[in-house]
Every structure is written in structure tokens, then in C-alpha cells.
Design goal:
two-stranded antiparallel sheet; 2 helices
Length: 262
């Protein structure tokens, strides 16, 4: 009986020792976990802020057209580019930002000679283009902001018009020199709305598609465009406009491009 009592006592002692060891191990693991949590907490908070507060930059291919068949846009030579910048604040429903863009509207290329002091005239290619330009302030309302597909609606207001640009490329050279960047400019007030969607492609990148309709005040959709057939080219390749023609701006716009949040 004495031996049995000693065995029981030994078993109880071993059991208590194992329990104490296990408890010590568990306490150490909990302490280790709690010690690592403060380091991970800022990352979790940053991830939340990334979803709720960000800046948005988009680069898009755009085309305006007068209406009719949508397929005609693909045959329209007036493709251009637009840059959009927006800021999102989790405390508001609307995102505000700016949108600027340009599209070629026609022009011509011609051989020109630049007069140089004490040197023979420099021959090269002169490229002259009318550009359709716009600058708008916009407000955007986005649905399902944390989904993969995010539809949105926009309202915008600003200016839209045309400018004449020229550049000279010397013969045998690939470098070009801008020539009087804005010798002629005509713009009118414009406003409108747009519908589109963002499709998430990566953690911070999106594919964006957008359709817009533009409005103007009475007669404001007609801008004066420099007549490419009645331009004066000076000896230093200075381009001036001697006559203009009225052009009715297209009321519709489509665009597709890439955007990034940061």
C-alpha cells in the first residue's frame, strides 16, 4: 500500500509538472503574439485607409464624334489623350478633380527653311496641327467602391476649344523643335455629364471606360479654328493664322484607359 501511495504521489507530481510546463508555454506564446500585434496593427490600418482615402490618376485614349453609328468612332481620325486627377475622401460622397486633354483636328506637313545668322538656311519638315483641347473640373459619384467593378457618374464644367501648334524637324534629325506653341487659340465655356465604370486589374490599377455628353451655352459649341490653307509661315518658321473658320464641336465623347490609386 505504501508503494502504491508513493506511485500515486509521483504520478500527481509528474502531472502537475507537465501542466505547469504547458501553462508556461501557453503564456509565453500569448505574450509573443501580443508583442507582435503592435507591429502588424499599422499595416492593417494602412490597408483600411488605402481603401477609404486615395488619390487617383488616369491616362486615357479619347475620341469625340458628332453622333450616328458608334462604329464610326473607330474610323474617326481625331483620337487624342486625356489626363485625369482626382482625390477621394472617405468622409464625402463625391470625389473632386481635374481632367485635361487634346485631340488633333487636322493640319498639314510642309518643307520649310529656317534662316540662320551667317549660315545657309536649314531645311526641314514643318508640322502644323489644329488641336481640340479641354480643361474641366469634375465631380464623381462611385458605386460599390470596394468591388471589382465600380460604376460611376460624373458632372463637369470648364472650357473647350482649339489651338494651333507647330513643330520643326531638321532634315536628317529625329529631334523636333516646338514653334510658337499657341499662336492661335479659341475656347468656349462647356459643361456636361458622363457615365462609366472602373474594373480593378491589380491591387491599385484599374481599367476605365467612360461615355460623356457635352453641353454649351447658346452658340458656344462653335469655335474658331485656324484655316490650314491660309497660314503664313515666316522665314524663321513662325506660323500665323490669317483666317479662321467656324467648327461645331462634337457633343459626344468616349474614352478608355488605365488608372491608378495611390
Amino acid at each position: 500500500q505504501k508503494t502504491t501511495s508513493m506511485n500515486i504521489t509521483r504520478a500527481l507530481f509528474l502531472t502537475c509538472a507537465m501542466a505547469a510546463a504547458s501553462l508556461s508555454s501557453m503564456v509565453g506564446q500569448v505574450a509573443k503574439t501580443q508583442a507582435t500585434q503592435p507591429e502588424n496593427a499599422p499595416e492593417t490600418k494602412a490597408d483600411i485607409l488605402l481603401l477609404d482615402k486615395w488619390r487617383h490618376v488616369g491616362f486615357h485614349l479619347i475620341s469625340d464624334w458628332q453622333g450616328g453609328e458608334v462604329d464610326s468612332v473607330l474610323d474617326d481620325p481625331t483620337f487624342g489623350f486625356a489626363l485625369t486627377y482626382m482625390k477621394h475622401d472617405r468622409h464625402g460622397l463625391l470625389d473632386g478633380g481635374f481632367d485635361i486633354g487634346f485631340q488633333p483636328m487636322g493640319g498639314f506637313d510642309t518643307t520649310a527653311f529656317v534662316v540662320q545668322d551667317g549660315k545657309a538656311p536649314l531645311e526641314g519638315q514643318l508640322r502644323v496641327r489644329n488641336q481640340l483641347v479641354h480643361a474641366h473640373y469634375l465631380l464623381r459619384f462611385t458605386l460599390f467602391q470596394r468591388a471589382k467593378i465600380q460604376p460611376f457618374a460624373e458632372g463637369f464644367v470648364g472650357a473647350r476649344g482649339s489651338l494651333l501648334g507647330a513643330r520643326f524637324t531638321a532634315q536628317g534629325s529625329d529631334d523636333f523643335t516646338p514653334v510658337n506653341d499657341v499662336p492661335f487659340f479659341s475656347a468656349n465655356f462647356s459643361y456636361g455629364f458622363a457615365l462609366g465604370a472602373r474594373v480593378q486589374m491589380g491591387e491599385r490599377t484599374f481599367l476605365t471606360a467612360r461615355y460623356g455628353e457635352m453641353r454649351h451655352l447658346d452658340g458656344g459649341n462653335v469655335v474658331q479654328v485656324a484655316d490650314a490653307d491660309r497660314l503664313t509661315i515666316g522665314p524663321d518658321c513662325t506660323v500665323t493664322s490669317n483666317a479662321t473658320t467656324g467648327v461645331t464641336l462634337p457633343p459626344y465623347s468616349v474614352r478608355v484607359g488605365l488608372a491608378m490609386n495611390f
